[in-house]
Specification:
This protein is an alpha+beta fold. It has 3 helices and 12 strands. Helix content is 21%, strand content 34%.
Length: 180
């Protein structure tokens, strides 16, 4: 039968593991939810806390250094056994990282953001999808805020009056003039 104590590279833990990667034949990294990393090397597992921020994915492969990505654009790289930060291009939350080789490392995050790692700095990649989304969001923020305030006040007055308020009643409660 199967004897876990006699098998190499088995990690026995009660903790929830979010991500696993094998950057080299004799090395494994496992991300424990969400601030600790397990590292297997030389036939032993070692557990370290690497950050206080929430991480989402550990990745490594094709001879690249292991990479951790997570909240607020935080990314860490592990050259020579020490986790070092990579400056973020934006404060987006990273959800995943992949590469097509040591010079083609990408991370994707919230709202479809895609970034490429160039010389230890993230660079935002502009995509057609982002341009399309920006085109749909052409209303200025101040106009949107006023619209939300108007909708909120209308709901409040409906509750107080027991009916839909007139435009004059909404304008009066917001101290707005009907002239315009």
């Amino acid at each position: 039968g199967f004897a876990p104590d006699s098998v190499e590279r088995i990690l026995k833990t009660e903790e929830w593991l979010m991500s696993l990667t094998c950057p080299a034949r004799d090395e494994l990294f496992a991300l424990e939810a969400t601030t600790r990393i397990w590292h297997y090397r030389n036939r032993f597992w070692k557990r370290d806390k690497v950050t206080d921020q929430s991480m989402r994915r550990v990745w490594g492969g094709d001879g690249t250094q292991p990479l951790l990505v997570g909240r607020g654009g935080l990314a860490l790289r592990n050259p020579a056994g020490a986790w070092l930060p990579i400056p973020p291009a934006s404060a987006t939350q990273f959800f995943d990282a992949h590469a097509a080789g040591p010079r083609l490392i990408y991370a994707c995050g919230g709202r479809g953001h895609l970034q490429r790692l160039e010389e230890n700095v993230w660079r935002v990649i502009e995509l057609g999808r982002q341009d399309e989304l920006r085109g749909l969001d052409w209303v200025p923020r101040s106009v949107r805020q006023k619209s939300h305030a108007l909708e909120k006040k209308t709901r409040e007055l409906e509750g107080e009056l027991g009916r839909a308020p007139s435009e004059e009643e909404v304008a009066g409660s917001l101290e707005l003039s009907m002239d315009a």
